[in-house]
Design a protein that fits this description.
Blueprint lengths: L23 E12 L2 H8 L8 H14 L1 H4 L8 E11 L4 E12 L4 H19 L7 E11 L6 E2 L2
Antiparallel strand pairs: 1-3, 1-4, 2-3, 4-5
Length: 158
């Protein structure tokens, strides 16, 4: 395993210095799932949840979270994001809502944390808006699925 980049020579937490890195186009995609009852999934997909349009609220929450990742995750750089898209795909057989987030920027550091944060907060928003109907909902499988740009190049999850 390589050296951890967020530690200085004395082993203390430190923000990575990206001032000498060139700006490149960077993209990251993350995904996650919210498991729920069939009834809760129907409330969401039919747009009749008591608290309103669950997916609209979750989409906005995910976008806002991506933009504020540096305020939530220690040592993340504040980034000028050029795109944040949050999408949803219901799976009635598995009784889940899949969430995907795509984030883009041009800069010296990647946007993986922003994509992961967008998915996480969108999932939490779905939970919050539906918890009165289904407290047993479960959030799972939040992961980076793809990234491009920078020195490490392209990554695609299997």
């Amino acid at each position: 395993m390589g050296k951890l980049s967020h530690l200085d020579e004395q082993g203390r937490a430190a923000m990575v210095d990206v001032s000498d890195k060139p700006d490149t186009a960077r993209t990251a995609e993350a995904k996650g799932r919210v498991h729920m009852t069939q009834e809760t999934l129907a409330l969401i997909t039919e747009g009749v949840a008591p608290k309103g349009d669950v997916l609209a609220a979750a989409r906005i929450a995910g976008i806002m979270a991506a933009k504020r990742t540096h305020e939530l995750i220690p040592l993340c750089h504040p980034l000028a994001l050029s795109k944040v898209a949050v999408e949803f795909a219901p799976d009635t057989e598995a009784s889940t809502m899949e969430i995907s987030a795509t984030v883009k920027t041009t800069g010296p550091t990647g946007v993986e944390m922003e994509a992961l944060t967008a998915v996480s907060v969108a999932a939490l928003t779905i939970y919050d808006m539906c918890k009165a109907a289904d407290r047993a909902m479960r959030i799972s499988d939040i992961r980076l699925t793809e990234k491009s740009g920078g020195k490490s190049g392209v990554y695609k999850a299997e």
